[in-house]
Design a protein that fits this description.
This protein is α+β, with helices and mostly antiparallel strands. It has one helix and four strands, in the order βββαβ. The chain has one domain: Ubiquitin-like (UB roll), CATH 3.10.20. Strands 1, 2, 3 and 4 form a four-stranded mixed β-sheet that branches. The two termini are 22 Å apart. The protein binds zinc ion.
Length: 74
């Protein structure tokens, strides 16, 4: 798809790292599938993926984890 930020680049399939914070909990997700702009580098994470990230961050928060690094698994 065409990048909505720079309006010049085209996004391609790739992976990114997403950091989510909730209270004292920080969760770092690696290898998150994303569409990445080849021009400006903007990363687009799909709504479905985002939902999973939020749910997993919530789980870590409930467990009282301070910092956790996870490989994203769909
Ligand atoms: Zn762009």
């Amino acid at each position: 798809m065409k990048c909505a930020i720079c309006r010049h680049g085209i996004t391609t399939e790739g992976y990114t790292t997403v950091v989510l914070e909730r209270g004292q909990t920080t969760v770092v997700f690696k290898k998150v599938p994303a569409q990445i702009c080849d021009n400006c580098g903007e990363e687009y994470v799909s709504e479905a993926v985002n939902k999973v990230l939020l749910r997993q961050a919530q789980e870590q928060w409930e467990r009282g984890i301070i910092i956790e690094m996870l490989n994203f698994a769909a």
